[in-house]
Amino acid sequence: MTRDTITKGRLPNAPASVYYIPDFISSEEEQNLINKVLSAPKPKWVHLKNRRLQNWGGVVVNNAMVAEPLPPWLTSFNPRFRELEVFEGLDPIHKDPNHCLINEYLPGQGILPHKDGPAYHPTVATVSLSSHCVLEFFKFSDLSEDRKNQEPEFSILVQPRSLLVLKEDVYNHYMHGIREVHSDNLTEGNILNLDRAFPPNNPAPISPLQRDTRISLTFRIVPKTIRGNRFLAPPKK
């Protein structure tokens, strides 16, 4: 029997390194994860202008991470990641993701087009909770200074409970972002996965899709990890 890998989620009209799997987790798993995120200690939250976030696994500084173990509710994804070969062959030491960034987006919040940077291996796996978003992609060489109003080369509708994996070419040569809007018109932005984002008996709505609060769990491998005591000042003589 042929083993299912992440290639089963490849989108025909997108770059070969974009993979989308709907219903990657169940509704019960989704609610348990939401409860874990929202019950995190207040100091765990970092408040930015357009969203708030949590770092798990450590804080990345100068392309290296002061590592700490991920909690069990995040490492629970590792068997499925291994089965799908999401992070296969990336790192001889780290077979599973060692970092998870959790972002909370309220309706109307988003993020400007950006790249994830060289601190990570070129594979990112995102599990979405509670609400959808439309993730827009721009070729790095084509992006203008007016990032808020530029039309994307293509977009992906990221539904709750789905898994989105970005690898190699699209990781290295594209920027991705989320517009700061309260609803998404699914006829705009060259959305490539509408046929997979909605079940066959429930096609995509014609009217704009209203956003709710969305939580994203973004898993990566940081290859360079260091001990926290390397940042401590040497003792005075």
Automatic annotation (TrEMBL):
Its main location: nucleus. It is found in: Nucleus. One of its GO terms (molecular function) is metal ion binding. Transmembrane segments: none annotated. Keywords: Dioxygenase, Iron, Metal-binding, Nucleus, Oxidoreductase. Residues 96-223 form the Fe2OG dioxygenase domain. Coiled coil: none annotated. The keyword Zinc-finger does not apply. Pfam families: 2OG-FeII_Oxy_2 (PF13532). It comes from the Eukaryota. GO terms for cellular component: nucleus. PANTHER family: ALPHA-KETOGLUTARATE-DEPENDENT DIOXYGENASE ALKB HOMOLOG 6. Belongs to the alkB family. This is Alkylated DNA repair protein alkB homolog 6.
